[in-house]
Amino acid sequence: MAAVETNELTAKTFSVEDAHPDWCGGCGDFGILSAVKQALAKLGRSPHEIAVISGIGCAGKLPHYIGTYGLHTLHGRALNVATGVKVANSKLEVLVAGGDGDGYGIGAGYLVNSGRRNVDFTYLVHNNGVYGLTKGQASPTMRRGDQTKAMAEPAIQSNVNPIGLAIASGYTFVARGYAMAQPDLVDLIIRAMKHRGTAILDILQPCPIYNDLMTIDFFRGSDVGQPRVYKLADEGFDGYVKDPQDPAEIVAKQQAAIAKSFEWGDRIPTGVLYQIDAPTYEDGLAARQPALASSSLFDLMNPGKNIDALEDAYR
Ligand code: SF4
Fold first, then answer.
1. Which regions of the chain are under pLDDT 70?
2. Ligand 1 centre from 209 Cα, in Å?
3. For a substitution probing ligand 1, which of 205, 207, 213 has the most ligand atoms within 8 Å of its CB?
4. Distance from CA of residue 81 to its chain's centroid?
5. Ligand 1 close to Cβ of residue 261 (< 6 A)
6. Tens digit of pLDDT for each residue in 278-302?
7. What is the residue with the minimal CA distance to atom 6 of ligand 1?
8. Residue 157 contacts by C-beta under 8 Å, 6 or more apart in sequence?
9. 182 sits in which H/E element
């Protein structure tokens, strides 16, 4: 990683100079990588303040191409590792990246339990409807009856609704983005990272190699004469719970978000579907051990320990 020579952070600051992303041409992962780097630059956090944790799959390669701390972990287990990283060093800004197969399939149990903990990190799910790394099998988000060019027969299972599952699991920030809508995706990532608690951002991502249904043309709406992807905010939708003590408002906002999440046809909504301010897991830990309110667990366990040389070695 290149040393940060000026105080001005740009998307290039977070680039790995000799990295040549191992993704196919036209893959939506490039759009997500670009948006993450732009968001980090706009937030003004230095590379050593950020950790990117990933699972297995095409999306799991993301940490290799960002000049921050990173861990490429196990299939479906990225959320667990991210939880450990954040709890050990609450000063780090933690991002998690993974695919829909990784997170909504093998990782589904961890997905649910991460929602109810509300640790302060951001989960970016690259949702392309297929298992790209293993040749395009149907993933949990592929709809019953759909058949891509990589499938011998149409899917005979129903799809998971990630937005509904996230809301039911207790996620406090639930949004959907589109990999090719760059300024909007950058904005959504920034909002997710600024949110205090676990934020999940389901990002629709074309896989041009294996999924010939969720193509750029499909999202552009070439066949229906209008862009399929639209912004909820443009139509006055507001998923933010203004009074977290009001159960009626919470239920109404959750119902509205879930209703929108089923919209998939000529129009596909993007933006923040649901957001609520709620105590985090870290708040609970600090209530038990007040020193954690101002210090990380790492600092408490290693008082006065200077690890500058170690950090420099891995920067
Ligand atoms: Fe992207 Fe699909 Fe290629 Fe994987 S297989 S890198 S998701 S285009």
1. 1-7, 315
2. 6
3. 207
4. 15
5. no
6. 999 999 999 999 999 999 998 888 8
7. 23
8. 138, 144
9. helix 182-194
